[in-house]
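To the wet lab folks,

You asked to see what we're planning to order before we commit. Fair enough. Below is the target structure as tokens, and below that is the sequence we designed to fit it. If anything looks off to you, flag it before the synthesis order goes out.
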């Protein structure tokens, strides 16, 4: 009696199993017959000559950052590229005699470029606060439109800065087109600013 009951249950389970296999096979054939199943992926390719590496070498996209200026405003480097405005990122310190010479010479020429090329000076001395930098900027009235800001450790690392008078010239797209360390003559400043203005 028990054996017969088990046999009936096994037959029912077997029958259900066959039903599901046949049903799945029919559904699969219906789907594949009418609408082929495909895995669609979207890929975009960019020519290698349009890929730009972020870094501190010539031809690299300059690493972005935001600084607080002596006017207590937040300035983001990437915004200059958004405005298609070239910029010189200049690393200085208030105690640097070479920076003083650079600013004295720049004071003679910057009026001709101040609306076309931005100068963003950043102190590499992290102990120099906004108030000290603000007092320092007053010594150079001809550089009123120059942006002066406190330094940050990450910026110094990203730009591999260890010396004052380090200059990075970025074109209107934010690409590094020139890099140097040292003071400039009036002619050198004009040559750099002219090239940036045309970029």
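Sequence we intend to order:
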């Amino acid at each position: 009696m028990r054996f017969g009951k088990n046999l009936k249950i096994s037959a029912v389970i077997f029958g259900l199993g066959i039903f599901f296999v046949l049903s799945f096979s029919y559904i699969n054939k219906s789907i594949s017959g009418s609408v082929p199943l495909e895995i669609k992926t979207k890929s975009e390719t960019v020519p290698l000559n349009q890929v730009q590496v972020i870094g501190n070498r010539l031809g690299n996209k300059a690493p972005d950052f935001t600084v607080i200026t002596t006017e207590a405003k937040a300035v983001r480097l990437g915004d200059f590229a958004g405005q298609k405005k070239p910029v010189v990122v200049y690393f200085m310190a208030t105690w640097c005699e070479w920076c003083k010479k650079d600013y004295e010479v720049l004071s003679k020429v910057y009026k001709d470029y101040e609306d076309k090329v931005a100068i963003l000076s950043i102190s590499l001395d992290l102990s120099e606060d906004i108030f000290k930098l603000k007092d320092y900027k007053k010594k150079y009235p001809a550089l009123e439109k120059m942006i002066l800001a406190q330094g940050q450790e990450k910026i110094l690392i990203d730009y591999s800065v260890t010396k004052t008078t380090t200059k990075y010239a970025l074109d209107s797209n934010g690409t590094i087109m020139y890099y140097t360390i040292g003071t400039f003559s009036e002619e050198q400043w004009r040559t750099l600013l002219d090239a940036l203005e045309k970029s």
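Structural context that might help your review: The first helix runs from residue 2 to 34. Residues 1-43 form one domain.

Thanks,
Computational group
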